[in-house]
Specification:
Length: 730
Amino acid sequence: MATTILQNAHPLKRRRRSFMDVVHVSPKLPGTPVWIFILLFVVIVFWILLSTTSDTMASTTTTDNFNNKNNNNHDGHDVDPKVVNANMALHEATAGLGQQLRHVVQTKRQQFQQALSQLAASGTTSVMPQRLKALRDKHEIIGERLIEIQQGQETAEELLHSRNSNGRGRGRRVANHPNAKQQALSNNGNHHKKKKSKKNKNIDNKNKNTADSAEDPAMAVLSDKPPMELDEIITFLNGWIHELHETLNQVKHATFEGIWQAYHDLTVKTLYPWDQEYLQRMPERRDDGSIFLSLASYRDETCFTTLYNAYAKAQHPDQLFVGLVQQNCHENCKSGVLANGTVEDVPPDDDCYAKFCASDIGQVRCNNQKKQQVRLLDINESESLGPYAARYLTSKLWYGESWFMQIDAHMTFAQNWDALSVAMLNKAPSTRPVLSHYPPAHTIDLETRRGQPSSRLCGPVFSRSDLENQIIRLEGGAVWDKQHQETPLFAPFTAAGYFVSHSRMLKEVPFDPFLPWIFMGEEIIMSSRLWTSGYDIFSPTQSVVGHWYVRRHKPKFWESVHRAFTVGVHNPLQMHILDRVRYQMGYPEAAPDLLSDRTILTAVESYTMGRVRPLSLYLTLVGLNMTTKEVTPTHWCENGFPPPGFEQYNHLYPDGMARKTKGMDKYMEKYAPPPAENDKDDDFTDDDLGEAEEGEEGEEAEQQWGNEEEEEEDKQDADDLTGGEEREEQ
């Protein structure tokens, strides 16, 4: 033990050796006994050994782990003192370095936040750049949100590309999931519980808009830019489609994950930032009664007749503007899958736009370049992204028209269908009405249906097909009423083939650019987003359009997907993307922590549920249980009742009375639309949306909802919507 200690204490060993040399070589001092020198030597040596032992034991303990890891090749032999000394010096030099570094980082972050706060409090734009202040106001400075990124609540990619300033996307992503606790739904936290007069309401709305612009610098900056020109919009979209085509060509043989990733990455870098800017630079709505008709066509031979008859039977064709997304095959074309399971070579598809513009009606509409009544995006069939993505592109061709109407490219029309649609919309008892249903079959004579009850879309089902990921399908479209109604009746769902709304819907509930290649799911996601954003859905009192349902053996867009990539890739690709819809609808298995690919939720805050009414209330209203995948019949839609909580409209429906539900009266005061007295304000002010807040009273009412259902009397038989003909997916 003494030998090891002396070897480890090399400098002290030299000192003892020098002292011994002095003892041995020094002559005796006169009159001093030898034993005194010996005793003195022993005491000194003992004292040195005692102090060295305590120091060396501490250092040996500190370096013991290091020696065990790095000196296993010594096979138990003594450690080189030089190595030990070097290790000790290194340990002493780095001791506390990590703690010091953390302290410095924390201090710098605090100083940075204090500096930003002082700059923001100063209120002078010359001190803080406007862009930096806008980012800080929206909590989009990456350095201030590192904890959220580390916890997986946000991604740096989303924060870098988040540029909206209208309140969407500011909350954490998981907060929008229905399983999370609902937060305050009002943007400003001002809950006006007293009903104002119309005059005061408009004044307050103007003041509120001014205050919002002053409080949100990003909005003020973006609003200073002029609206995008229509040619600018079309040029960008054409360029983006070309760039997407080149990008996807590089992943022709990739798996569905690789295809989605290629689309996602390009959209995050290009389309999403552009879309956010577009939403801030949308043109002003014209209050002239004009209608924008959204028309998406995929290799549809009836597109020309649809477009032609839309103008031929319109009461105000000069006020009809069409956005046409035409997806055609131009060469090496194939038919749809025939009865024997084969495909055939076919001629190129008819150019719907060119054919219409060459017609007698089309020449007038297409040649007026200043008015631009028919706007075109021409896409090759190999670039098709499905019906929902086509409707997204079509919606961007809107340019200030008063009303928005969406149809398919295989429709028939009643005379004066445009004026009838707007008139029904204005009769709906809501300041945010949406008119929609599954139209009757194209074989029905719409002129003979005047004065007869129209159909209503009531019944949801959870898809049992493995290809549709248990998404909600709408199958309850039928004529439920015995007699014609003058006032549109409430309905729970919108149909993609026909719906009409105030055009402000395009800004408040914008189409989602992150939903390519899906077929099912577009109707339920639009229905729920519209309702939670304060819109009320109604069925029309008269059928003004017919729909060509049976289209067997016609080309389908997923066949183009298989030709562009690999056969069979569309099914897993669609299932993967549908997780975005399932997450928003509250499927427990689509919660963020359970998704294998978190990019499926990129920027979902910008295109998700509204903040006016909670999703949980909508799901209860329509009878959907996302956990058990069960549908509870609600009967109010089939029987023509106003929904529970909308009893104030009972007088409009003499044959149907809303059932009063215990505990819901006060709760629905927050969410039911204000009464409409045929003087709806076309400006659709924010105050008209109602107030959105959630409290204990509302939560208790939600739990009581549906607990006291009464037995319904004899259920009315419903005529088949399509007159007995089988309806097929487009």
